[in-house]
Structure to design on (297 residues):
């Protein structure tokens, strides 16, 4: 597990920053504000902001809470974007989930229309927040990263292909595309935002970006394996076999359980080899280990 002395202060930082960011102009419907806050403050593990902080600190070559003030806006924005994805993903016409982190999904509490608007509001709020970064060049780059992550090239595109693939037999490359876009796009965006703010070299950005995408894919494969046994996800995603009962394709479904296990084990081993020589890599190593330890026997 990620050490508490590292994780907890950074989680506290992002919780406070989220609270400060979610202020709305006079006249915003109270029901919409309640719907937004319901999903944002719903016991999230804040994995994406923590990953962003970790990569930023690695690039600075020091672990410092004070330095994270420079990437607070990015951390808030990526968490809001991820929350928007979850709200929309749970909708009846997409994944039709009955539960999110042990609670009712947004649309089951506030109605489908308000849930859709809450997700839309969070996407626009995320872009608004990074657009206000004082360094205008960095702000523009961050806006580009976020809009790409949310777009038809990112999570929206992944959700669309996922819907169209329901009850269909698809190939492994299509399933990979779905997960890369639905889940991987915001995880990849988190590290790219860190690289922008730390003024990383291009080769560093490419390396961390590829690492993030493959970490996301590994995570998803393990979640699908656990869904076979009706296991809940430590990171807050739905993992109660809903992917199977709703007819959506999965890695275990396409490859078989044992081949899927071998694939994800190799992916995680490869991820470790990529970062093993990097200074300050201990938190990323723990993230790999958390996923590895969840692979079912």
């Amino acid at each position: 597990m990620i050490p508490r002395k590292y994780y907890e202060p950074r989680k506290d930082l992002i919780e406070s920053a989220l609270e400060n960011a979610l202020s709305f102009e006079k006249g915003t419907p109270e029901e919409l504000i309640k719907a937004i806050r319901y999903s944002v403050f719903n016991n999230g593990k804040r994995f994406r902001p923590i990953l962003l902080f970790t990569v930023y600190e690695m690039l600075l070559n020091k672990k410092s809470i004070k330095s994270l003030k420079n990437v607070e806006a990015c951390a808030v924005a990526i968490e809001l974007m991820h929350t928007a994805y979850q709200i929309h993903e749970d909708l009846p016409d997409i994944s039709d989930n009955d539960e999110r982190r042990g609670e009712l999904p947004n649309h089951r509490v506030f109605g489908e229309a308000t849930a859709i608007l809450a997700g839309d509001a969070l996407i626009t709020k995320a872009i608004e927040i990074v657009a206000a970064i004082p360094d205008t060049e960095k702000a523009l780059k961050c806006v580009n990263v976020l809009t790409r992550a949310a777009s038809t090239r990112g999570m929206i595109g992944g959700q669309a292909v996922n819907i169209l693939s329901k009850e269909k037999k698809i190939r492994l490359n299509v399933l990979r595309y779905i997960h890369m876009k639905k889940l991987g796009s915001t995880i990849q965006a988190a590290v790219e935002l860190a690289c922008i703010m730390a003024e990383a070299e291009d080769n560093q950005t490419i390396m961390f970006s590829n690492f993030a995408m493959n970490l996301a894919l590994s995570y998803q494969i393990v979640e699908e394996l656990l869904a076979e046994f009706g296991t809940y996800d430590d990171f807050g995603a739905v993992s109660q076999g809903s992917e199977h009962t709703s007819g959506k394709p999965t890695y275990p479904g396409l490859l078989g359980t044992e081949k899927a296990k071998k694939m994800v084990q190799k992916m995680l081993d490869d991820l470790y080899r990529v970062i093993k020589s990097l200074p300050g890599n201990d938190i990323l190593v723990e993230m790999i280990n958390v996923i590895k330890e969840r692979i079912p026997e």
